[in-house]
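User: Fold this; tokens only.

Assistant: Input:
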Amino acid sequence: MSAFKAYDIRGIYGKDIDEELAYRIGFFLPRLLDADHVIVGRDIRLSSPSLHDSLVSGITDSGADVWDLGLATTPMVYFATAHLDAAASVQITASHNPKEYNGFKISRRGALPVGGDSGLKDLEKMVKEETVTVSEKKGAVKDFSSVRNDYISFLRPFAEGLDDLDISIDCSSGMSSLIIKDLLGENRHYINDTFDGSFPAHEPNPLEKENCAQIAAETVKNSSDCGVIYDGDADRVMFIDEKGNFIQPDYITAVIGKYYADKGITGNALQDIRTSRSTTEYLEKLGFAVTTWKVGHAYAKLKIREINGVFGGELAGHYYFRDFFCCDSGILASLLVLSAVHNLRKEGKTLSSLIGEIVSYANSGEINFRLENKDAAIEALYERFVKNGNPIKVMDFDGYRVESDSWWFNVRKSNTEPYLRIVAEARTKALLNEKLAEIREIIGRFH
């Protein structure tokens, strides 16, 4: 299976991703993006240093310069791309995937994403088919690690006024450790805050609730107002309430909406096709006009620009901000949520009480089905619930979302993993269970 995906390049190191691929990506990327320089950052995965060296060699052999950030969060690479008006950038990371994975996230000028529909397919063709001819004049490697300080300076105003908040933070042994203590200080309850590309405590994917068990326990033990857990490259973040409960990430989109509304800022907001009606309705009550769109940063960053959105959020824990070049940042999102929690505390309220106000539907969360014949299963669901189901609305992008008065569901194929994904929601738990049982029965025919 190709490492070139819809959003980025990703796969198992030594199988899908290796130094030769890194070199060829580096060599052909400057031509793809008409760039005479490329920003390069990397995470702390065990394979990242050698992939970095090969990528850099490919870029310089093409004749382009490398602006090397060294260790970086993925949002720090986005920041550098826009802040320095760079023509292209690459972050070496597999984000939230297990330790054996690695990959490349590519952006063009303005921190615009390079995805399957915006250049990655062309790059894949070049990498696979074209011949490398080393430039007579090689590019230079320049140290741009000081961008870290610029990024911290950009984020620092969002961290003001949080000194008396009690916070437990899980850095997942990943890249958030690079900057979070500069923003929130040492006097917090940190765990897994030492770089370790083998991720010894848990996989760096906080969307899997078992990976949040440790931070949930810490949050309760420390009587914290909130628990925070970042993924491996710090572009995603999840939250634990003061009772130790994991908060479904699309509900956090509503919390971020409250942060802006409390500052008198409303306008357009973006959500993905899996988002709870609870979030949509809460944002609309706050005064936001909500647009629903496809899953994935390569789509969200373009859409939020198109609608001039104040912010956007996804079920996977990506949050996008107009004030951050329409890019996602787990750390910026966490600072806004912590500010909202701080304001709640001043009112004598808690994060769990706010989530209780937001949530008004029974929600399944994302359910994954591993099966070969995904298209046939999707067609069978369409036959039952669209052709024979009398829905009030059907969204037919990124799989489809079928809406009725009392319930809805979304079915889509994963762009990064071999799964069929289902999210369903209903006015009551009993109705949700009834509809999920029917969906499971239909999908079960195709196992």
